[in-house]
Specification:
By secondary structure, this protein is mainly α. The protein has helices spanning about 5-30, 35-45, 45-75. The chain is built from 3 helices and no strands. Helix 1 crosses helix 2 and helix 1 (about 5-30) packs antiparallel against helix 3. It is elongated and about 60 Å long.
């Protein structure tokens, strides 16, 4: 794989997992009491929350992780400086 493709695909996968996983965890925690108002509203707005979370949260996680992976790869090692 290309040197830039692997970090991007890794960051994209982690971002998608975070973006998709957050709404499920949020609804699961809210629905510990199934008749609570938080559970009812969480289930009602779940499709909207899922779409927004994938774009916003997934995008942020992808960007940050990609920056960390690229910076880590560009940092010179101790063997190169000698």
């Amino acid at each position: 794989m290309s040197t830039r493709r692997f970090p991007f695909l890794t960051a994209l996968c982690v971002g998608l997992i975070a973006g998709i996983g957050y709404p499920f965890v949020d609804v699961a925690l809210a629905c510990r009491a199934p008749i609570s108002e938080a559970c009812v509203w969480g289930k009602a707005y779940f499709p909207l929350t899922l779409g927004v979370s994938v774009v916003v949260l997934g995008g942020i996680v992808t960007g940050l992780l990609y920056a960390v992976l690229i910076r880590r790869d560009r940092r010179p090692s101790r063997d190169d400086s000698a």
